[in-house]
Amino acid sequence: MNPLSVPLVDAELTQCLSAALPGARIESMPLPLSPEISLYLLNSDYPQHQLLPEQMLYLMENPLYWTFCWASGQVLARHLLQNPELVRGLSVLDFGCGSGVVGIAAALAGAQRVIACDIDPLALRATARNAALNGVDLNLVADFADAAGDIDLIIVADVLYDIENLPWLQRFLSRAPSVLMADSRIKDFNMHPYRRVKQCEASTLPDLDESPEFRQVSIYLAGNGLPA
Ligand SMILES: C[S@@+](CC[C@H](N)C(=O)[O-])C[C@H]1O[C@@H](n2cnc3c(N)ncnc32)[C@H](O)[C@@H]1O
Which is the closest atom of ligand 1 to the Cα of 161? Predict the structure, then answer.
């Protein structure tokens, strides 16, 4: 998809957001850790603490992950922008792209091709808008199996909130020689051949006021061919 042909304001995204969170808006904001990237996210002054129980329930059934840039996504995006040699010239897949933050960082850092994958069609729409906002081109797929061609590196941030996603970490290694994964959900994550290469603190944007443990983000590397 040519990002420049995507309209920046998306009526369907706005409609889905206000169905879940009355009065909420989508607004573009720069990332605190990587101000060279801006994303369309939930308006930062939305009074999340005033949600009614039925609104919370609706949200849990229809999570709008793409309206946030998760702490792990921010950290992995920063890591790629700071270390462009990790992706330069490579074919990269961002698994669980959400807003598209990590894939956008990979594209800005010089990846030759970026595929953004998410099971949520709204996340793919949001990713297309955010790619356009940042002037990069991403290929979108809803199903990992549909990603065509060679993939040199899989990048993945904050998908282990759902423990059923754990087996993906081994599957990735039969599809690509290297994986970079950022996570703050599993304490003391330990899965061969993943090894921790970085740890730092970050918050989700807009800030969800998550407990301190979920602000401690680690980046893990598996596979060969990439500098740590
Ligand atoms: C917490 S969000 C993280 C988004 C983004 N990576 C970030 O860090 O801001 C998790 C995203 O992963 C997607 N996801 C979860 N399980 C998935 C799966 N099995 N396949 C593809 N996408 C998945 C969700 O739909 C959601 O958009």
Answer: 1
Q: Per-domain residue ranges for the chain? A: 1-228
Q: Is 157 in the pocket of ligand 1 (CB under 6 A)?
A: yes
26/46 Cα distance (integer angstroms): 10
Predicted TM-score (pTM) of this structure: 0.93
Q: Interhelix angle for 101-108 vs 71-82, to 10°?
A: 10
Backbone angles phi, psi at 69, to 5 degrees: -105, 110
The class level of CATH for 1-228 reads alpha beta
Ligand 1 atom having least distance to the Cα of 71: 8
Would you say 69 and 76 are in contact if contact means Cβ atoms under 8 Å apart?
A: no
DSSP 63-88: --GGGSB-HHHHHHHHHHHH-GGGTT
Q: For residue 158, how far is its CA from the centre of ligand 1 (angstroms)? A: 7
Asked if the peptide bond before residue 206 counts as cis, ω within 30 degrees of 0, the response is yes
**d(C-alpha 145, C-alpha 151), whole Å:** 12
pLDDT digits (tens, 9 = 90+) for 46-95: 877 677 778 777 777 888 999 999 999 999 999 999 999 999 999 999 99
Burial of 84 (0-12, 13-18, 19+ CB in 10 A): middle
